[in-house]
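Exercise 7. Predict the structure of Flavin reductase from Streptomyces griseoruber.
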Amino acid sequence: MTASPDLGTSRLASPDLLRSVFRRHAAGVAVITAPGASGPVGFTATSLTSVSAEPPMLSFGVGTGASSWPAISRAEHVGVHLLGEHQQELAATFARSGADRFGAPTAWREGPEGVPVLDDVLAWLVCRVVARVPAGDHRIVLAEVVLGDPAGAGRPLLYHQGRFTALRD
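Solution. The predicted structure, encoded as tokens:
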């Protein structure tokens, strides 16, 4: 049985409507990192998208009010880390305002191009930023893949209904 949309309950566009709809959209969880003038910066992102295979390119969104935006706005390279279901606390740390994101227990090292690379992730990439496109109160960052490693063990961490979760079999 299929249900037709109830057009009588539709709402006009608003930030709340967009958030309510996207709470129903399950998304993979990534952490974006970059070198910063005062040390490394990073944030949790669910807006990661593959853009192009040739050249290999991806995109992610970042709010211009985010604490990491000043560094991301100047970074030539960024790190992209796909998190596993065992990394809910790491995802929460990088999502929390004011958190010491690179202090213990976060395990990381300086990687190529000075990009912070997180340990124990499902996969990671170092990418060269090619564009920052204005999009409302965010910027869409387009980045070309330079190198990476897809060989981490585990299953992906997801974000759905306002919380981190895992795949079900």
